[in-house]
Amino acid sequence: MTLQETNIDRFCGISGCEADWLSSRRHEADDDIVAFNNWAMAQGWGDGLPLIPPTQERVQDFLVAGGRFPDELVAVLPPLRSECTVEKIAINAVMAGCTGTAMPLLCATIEALADPKFDLAGLNATTGSVIPAMIVNGAIRNRLDIPCQAGCLGGVAGPAVAIGRAIRLIMRNVAGQLIGSTSQSVYGTPGRVAGIVFAEWEERSPWAPLAQRRGVTGDAVSVYGAMGTANICDVVADSADGFLDIIAKSMAYPGANGFLTSSAFAETLCAINPIWAEVIARAYPDMADVQAYLWDKCALPIDWWRPEYRAPIEALGRIKPDGRVHLVPTPDDVLVMVAGGEGSLHAAMLHSWGTCLTVTRPIIGG
User: Fold this and answer.
1) Which of 10, 191, 203, 223 has the fewest CB atoms within 10 Å, i.e. the most exposed one?
2) Based on C-alpha coordinates, what's the Rg of the chain?
3) For 316-346, how does the pLDDT look when each residue is reduced to its tens digit (9 = 90+)?
């Protein structure tokens, strides 16, 4: 078969016949799937998992599903400052194993990543393990079968894994994020292969959807700079304050990025299971009150740190009159959503890397 390489040297597509709607250069590759994967890995296009050969027919199906011109510029992505076109998104999506129906979500996600507020350049270069988590709202959750219930953060078989992987391949092949080169991540995370893609269980949420609270109604994706996921477990609490206390105090640990002496600001994200959410909402029907409660409890006394930490934390103006340091600057920086199974007993926290600010974008044409 004939391979087609874009003007980004490390990026490929495959074509089975002549076409003038693709801008990529063509290369010959073996039809054998194992041979193709070995070849693609040698070119630096893979992530270690099998790739689907992006034939012209497959890529064209994605472009039709996305409803946008192949050469349309979606974003310029650091660190290479590479132009990410609709075609490049489609080729990586094919290789990741996506279906064409995911194209509107993928394009909206790339647009969100490129927003300066998200600081993709910093995210791609940092020593941390941060990855963009994708949180989906609106009816598109069901059309794309994005998980929002039991196992939503990983382990559910379905399209979300390939969607997350497509974004990761774009960050590798187009943006140019490479461990040990443009990225200095000390540990990395499994999320740097499959991403984190989940939805809000809106039907079970007593509050307005996360995207709506952020100003976008209907189909939307919020991109959040996550340092991974962590579980919060409680088998004793049975009240709103009890649940919120254990969530907030769990999130406030000294090594969290939000407490770094180099961090003037940060966010934090909590996913509350629907059982806990019902109890909490009876006491706090206004989400602003939930955020305020969590923010207040999500703090540590300055004495929890060794003496040498006090001066740099104080220089940032982060020590309150009562001697506490809050994980994030304001209650608005505590992001809360409803997701997870009905087994109760658990919440999930996704800590922010720090300088990434969450960006929410509408999904057009999904």
Assistant:
1) 203
2) 21
3) 999 999 999 999 999 999 999 999 999 999 9
